[in-house]
Amino acid sequence: MTQARLDLIDRRILTELQKDARVSNVQLAARVGLSPSPCLARVRRLEQEGYLKAYVALVSPEALGLSITVFIQVSLEMQHKEALRTFETRVTELPEVMECYLMTGDSDYLLRVVVPDMEALQSFIMQDLTEIPGVRNIRSSFALRQVSYKTELPLSAE
């Protein structure tokens, strides 16, 4: 999949769907300047080619009482394939982990974790994270306030 395969209409479709995945095909077609049938065909092609991964609803963490966001840096004892695979398998099973990145620099992984309170965070760290084999060091930073949050990828309309 290469971005060069996307023409202006494909980019417009992706931009509109990132704004509102529930838009009807008729509305989408009007917004991007196509008739409904070719628009639907393009959307299906974008899905098949992997440009559209999923359609989701963005749920408010605050409305669910998940008011604490923590960024956790994790260092492993060793960085061999099996240790990385074990950590990645286990961490993806933890519902509190919203994002996990393999990093360069001082730590091996960066996690974004959401929890309702400090007790839940302590439980997560002590009962879940530290129990993963090979975890050597954990450092946490608390988000005081979310300044910016985007789900739309920057697509050039040109």
Automatic annotation (TrEMBL):
SUPFAM superfamilies: Dimeric alpha+beta barrel, Winged helix' DNA-binding domain. One of its GO terms (molecular function) is sequence-specific DNA binding. Gene3D superfamilies: 3.30.70.920, Winged helix-like DNA-binding domain superfamily/Winged helix DNA-binding domain. Residues 6-67 form the HTH asnC-type domain. InterPro entries: ArsR-like_HTH (IPR011991), AsnC-type_HTH_dom (IPR000485), Dimeric_a/b-barrel (IPR011008), Tscrpt_reg_AsnC-like (IPR019888), Tscrpt_reg_AsnC/Lrp_C (IPR019887), Tscrpt_reg_HTH_AsnC-type_CS (IPR019885), WH-like_DNA-bd_sf (IPR036388), WH_DNA-bd_sf (IPR036390). Keywords: DNA-binding, Transcription, Transcription regulation. One of its GO terms (biological process) is regulation of DNA-templated transcription. GO terms for cellular component: cytosol. This is Lrp/AsnC family transcriptional regulator. It comes from Falsigemmobacter intermedius.
